[in-house]
Amino acid sequence: MITSDRQYRNFDFETKEMRVEGQAVTFENPTLMFEHDGMQFYEVISRSAFEQAKIDDVVLVIDHKGKPAAKTKNGTLELRTSESGLFISADLSKNATGRELHEDIENGFYSQMSFAFTIREESYDKSTRTRRIEKIDRLYDVSAVTFPAYEQTSISARSFFEEESEKELMEIRQREEKRNKLKLLLEIERSIK
């Protein structure tokens, strides 16, 4: 199920026989997530983000919905973290959905994936405009997506970064208003003298 509290991100994958393998997340790699009025906003996923995350019931689906092609609970989907990121490996031979997905991947209909998660802990560095995902609460799915920039990814990312952009623009406007008021007061004072 796609909900507004989950975060979605893209990643590449490749196939081997009836398996799908790929790196779902790259740790400590600043990624441009949003750009507004010439300001760029980034996101970094911490190397320790998955240490306490709930990842025991994750599914591999298409476009973040539908019948699972693989699942961690039955052993057809495996997740593994390393120093550099989170990797997935899925056996797509166990059901019709998986076999159909494998055929679609082989034929080039899907070449990238996304993952859906909720956040337990995050921080934001205003000076670098970087959101840091410190701890992921739960990983819901890894998903083959129709387009590399999955629509929900953009919506989720933009909602956070638009808010930060609006805050920063508001602060800039407030500083400009104060500066203009000071200039006006100085001009009034000079004209009185």
Task: Please characterize this protein's 3D structure.
This protein is an alpha+beta fold and about 190 residues long. It has one domain (about 5-190). It has helices at about 95-105, 150-190, and strands at about 5-15, 20-25, 30-35, 40-45, 60, 65-70, 75-80, 85-90, 110-125, 130-145. Strands 1, 2, 3, 4, 5, 6, 7, 8, 9 and 10 form a ten-stranded mixed β-sheet that branches. The protein is elongated and about 90 Å long. It starts with 6 loop residues before the first strand and ends with a helix.
- The coarse overall form would be elongated
The overall pLDDT average reads 83
Low confidence ranges: 148-158
Kindly, what is the distance between the CA atoms of the first and last residues, rounded to a whole number of angstroms? 70 Å
Rg, nearest Å: 22 Å
What is this entry, summarized?
Helices cover 27% and strands 43% of the residues.
Secondary-structure topology with pairs:
Layout lengths: L6 E10 L2 E8 L4 E6 L2 E7 L13 E4 L2 E7 L5 E5 L3 E7 L4 H11 L5 E14 L4 E15 L6 H42 L1
Features:
alpha+beta, 27% helix, 43% strand, 193 residues, 10 strands, ten-stranded mixed beta sheet
